[in-house]
Amino acid sequence: MRPMMRPIPMIWIAIVIACLAGCGKASAPAREAAYATVSVFFATDRNQTGKTNPGEMFGADRANLTYGTCEVSVPRDHRMGELESPSIWRLEFREDPAKHVVLLRAAVASKDRFFADVAERVRRSQAGSAFVFVHGYNVTFEDAARRTAQITYDLGFDGAPTFYSWPSRGATPAYTVDEQNIEWAQANLRNFLEDFFTRSDAEHVYLIAHSMGNRALTRAVASLLADKPALRRRLSEVILTAPDIDAEVFRRDIAPALTAAGRPVTLYASSADKALIASRKVHGYARAGDSGNGLVVVPGIETVDATQVDTSLLGHSYFAETRSVLSDMFYLIRDNKRADQRFGLRPVDAQAGRYWEFKQ
Description:
Rossmann fold; single chain; 11 strands; 24% strand; 36% helix; globular
């Protein structure tokens, strides 16, 4: 005769359930540890779509300024300069925060809440610093958020990383539409920068622009600092990467206005930039981000020729995708070192003046 099984006391059932629940919770940090979450701030004059997916919250139409924050994943095994994305060659068909740089969340905030949060982040940083990144042509809101987080992570930036997203269509054929929209956004960007300088509490503000974004940033900051000279002391550096601006217009009009404020300016250029080669063909004139014989070298601006380290397919996003350039920006921002103090550069004396190139 088989012995009767004694009923299991409820306390033991409760203990088993608690243990199982605890085990489930214990596994969560392991998943979380597979990626870092980078929080970045944003201001945008794109329209709100009403969609809840963070990558689709903002469209490509013009609108009033909106402020907020984004959370972006960066894999723990992230390679410096990589903007990891799903690849069909690796049979990856969905975004995975443990493998890819993913826009996880985007939240809109009031203007007052936004600047209070930025100021709080600035106060927690070692140097009281912040940067504002203005993206270029053919970039969506999601693209801009992911790129800003990647730059923040790769630079080890502990201040308030912020991006300004103007209504680029995010489509290759829409180049001329983007040209109209970046011109339209210039006044909004100027107003935003004035607020940022006065309300972020940042003692060290770095302004970074890429490609077509340089058109709005250079004019906006030159105008702002001419009208509000008291703000100049807060500007630590203007960093112009692959500027898609007419080179002669830059030399004649923009550079003098930009350098009149007496603040440091660094320009990265490359002759391997296929996007700027195409822009030169479209416009008929060299771009300020070209190098070679037309390299822009003007007083008050430190020009760095990145041609020799540019290994990307299009050669246009080298500022964020090349270890040498990112390392150079790291010392520029962290230590405020000038070009002749940064160990990865060597000077080149040309007829137009001195510029720098990367050591091989």
